[in-house]
Amino acid sequence: MTKQSGKDIISRYHTYIRLEKSLSQNSVDAYLSDLDKLVRFTSSEGIDIKSITYNDLQQFVAQLHDIGIHPRSQARIISGIKSFYRFLLIDDYVTTDPTELLESPKIGLKLPEVLTINEINAILDSIDLSVSEGQRNRAMLEVLYSCGLRVSELTNLRYPDVYFEESFIRVEGKGSKQRLVPISDLALKEIRLYLLDRNTVKIKKGYEDFLFLSRRGTGLSRIMIFHIIKDLAEKAGITKNISPHTFRHSFATHLLEGGANLRAIQLMLGHEKITTTEIYTHIDREFLRNEILFHHPRSIRKT
Fold first, then answer.
1. What are the φ/ψ torsions at residue 170 (nearest 5 degrees)?
2. Active-site positions?
3. What b/e sequence results for 96-133 when a residue is b if at least 16 CB atoms lie within 10 Å of its CB, and e otherwise?
4. Does the 3-90 domain belong in CATH 3.20.20.380?
């Protein structure tokens, strides 16, 4: 299927759901947005959307789950994809429906809330920069959101692991596995401002390389980060039940909504590969950096 014929099919599907199914404009937009996620997946895999298999779809859904997309959102995306392939079947574009056995996730345990961009801004704006730890907290939260780090990765981040010129940070994740994660210019700016305060702290032995320090010159604990975020959210008037992990989910969700590649999000989050190693070998640092620059709402380079 050529790129143009793919667009033609989606255009026909657009007409189908708008006129024949009589869906509202909001529903039409939602269906097309969810379908676009699958289109980008098939494009990155080199798969013809008309010849996609059940196994391909399983991999797509697994990636949605792996980057932390809420089960309800997964269920909505799957529902939209099922609608699309029913249309293809009706209009004889395909002879079998690859979504027939595709199941929606069980909606049980609730994943952490996802913050809107405005809510993240409100939390950051609630930070009192006149106090000694104010700029540190602002830099920490910018890094947490801009890089999608686990809280343990944030507390263990070392100053030598910040590559200011290359706009990357080196992160040590689960199992001591290291990865390079792109970091936004805005987050780097906040770190540079924080370093002015950090230089005034009397650092305890053994913590010289730690980027984020307590007022006593030691590292920060997970509990301390949790309380900082809770207090700031309360000051910002946000009632959602949030934690440091909420920023990680928000990072993944906002990148996905902005059109970033599923696999790139996986790698930036430091998740295990879903299928085989070979399918990840062509994703390089420049590609990951561009995914941040063009799809993350915090990037100041986004036009």
1. -100, 125
2. 150, 174, 245, 248, 271, 280
3. eebbeebeebeeeeeebbbbeeebbebbbebbeeeeeb
4. no
Under 8 Å CB-to-CB from 134, ≥6 apart: which residues? 127, 128
Instruction: Give DSSP secondary structure letters for 269-298.
Output: HTPPPSS-GGGGTT--HHHHHHHHHHH-TT
User: What 3-state class would DSSP assign to 77?
Assistant: helix
**For residue range 32-87, what is the model confidence (pLDDT) as tens digits?**
988 999 998 898 888 988 989 988 898 898 888 878 787 888 888 998 899 999 89
Kindly state the DSSP code that residue 104 receives in the 8-state scheme.
Answer: P
Each residue's pLDDT tens digit, 12-27: 899 888 887 788 888 8
Q: Tell me whether the CATH fold assigned to 3-90 matches the one assigned to 117-295.
A: no
Q: Which two tokens stand for residue 97?
A: 């429906």
Beta strands in 126-220 (DSSP E): 162-163, 168-172, 178-182
- Best CA proximity match to 36, nearest among 7, 67, 61, 4: 7
DSSP reduced 3-state for 131: coil
CATH of 117-295, picked from 1.10.10.10, 1.10.443.10, 1.10.150.80, 3.40.50.920, is 1.10.443.10
